Amino acid sequence: MATISPASDFAPTAAAPRAAATAARTRDLRLDFFRGIAMFIILVAHIPFNPWAGWIPARFGFSDATEIFVFCSGMASAIAFGGAFLKRGWWMGTARIAFRVWQVYWAHIGLFFFTAMCMAALDLSGLFEKSYVDGLNLQHFFGDPMPQIVGLFTLTYVPNYFDILPMYLVVLAMMPLMMGLRQVGFWAMALASVLIWAVAQTGALALPAEPWSERQWFFNPFGWQLLFFTGFAFMRGWIPAPPVHKALIWAAALFVVLSAPFGSWKVFLWVDAWNPTVSEPIRETWKVTGELRDKTDFALLRYVHFLSLAYLGWVVAGDKGARLLPQGTGGLARLWQIVLNVILKVGQQSLAVFVFSMAAARLLGVLLDLGGRDPATVLAVNLFGFALIAAVAYGAAWFKSHPWKSRT
Questions:
Q1: Around Cβ 316, how many Cβ atoms within 10 Å?
Q2: Which residues cross the membrane (predicted)?
Q3: What is the CA radius of gyration of the chain?
């Protein structure tokens, strides 16, 4: 595999290799498509007691939409931030990352306080028998807010449900280190990422999530960084695109299909109901492979499962996502073009959409509490949620276009 010299990668006055620069500048249709799909899945997964959540990809394998989000974020970061290192040098690239970490940090803080306020308002309304504050496990925060506020701002208090953005900002903060190692060679960066991931599997790099228990961050950034930088390296062109080969396609498909009973409690229950005798070895395998499919530290089986799914998705989508585009000019083709445009827009504005959807999901759960969870109500609430995040994506894109500036 070809490597890039330190001067070409970080000296502002030097020209980068044409292939790497092109790879980093070009936004692949597949990136926005799959990241957009992940945003819709994440919304479905976070609506409390949402029947649709029983059918998301997480119920049929080791990996889920979180992997899509992190991998695609690594790819997007290669486009958005990698160029700063390439064009302006390591220090300016680090400054660019620091600014993004600052943005994500305040997005996390704002998301927490807005959601906590909504849950408190619902409880104070007296309209509900249950406590929404307790349902989100925020009773400790409201019972003794002063130390929890300090913990919230120092990231030593990371409540359940608010744990993805802290992981993401820590992984982003690791980018200057990785880009510095890239000056030595890609092998140094790759080796460091793998070693950090391996140490994280031992539990030595666990981060405390709350002062009153031994609970750790649900997403350990030192484990998940491996997936982020895998996506980053693919987009920078440091890892070559895998070939489209029948043997690889079959291997990936077989791993995804055959691992389903071992990677999901839902499929396991189906097998158990179908044939308890068959389910017994699956039950034992489930116990033995617990650490290998662990989500907190991003265990090996999750990595292999996601790479298999990603490869299949990459093959199905075609070169630069050509097969995602509508075929023909009929009514279905036009309808698909509209749907595709919405998915792409949601993928392009993923941070704004994610922050909004995490807050909206709790309120959509309230609508289900009020209206019931019959199929019609569930359909209406989920589609309403989809419409909301689509509106946020288009709104965010409009604001980013700076429409108030004169156009001459």
A1: 11
A2: 33-56, 68-86, 106-128, 148-172, 184-205, 217-235, 247-271, 300-317, 338-364, 376-399
A3: 22
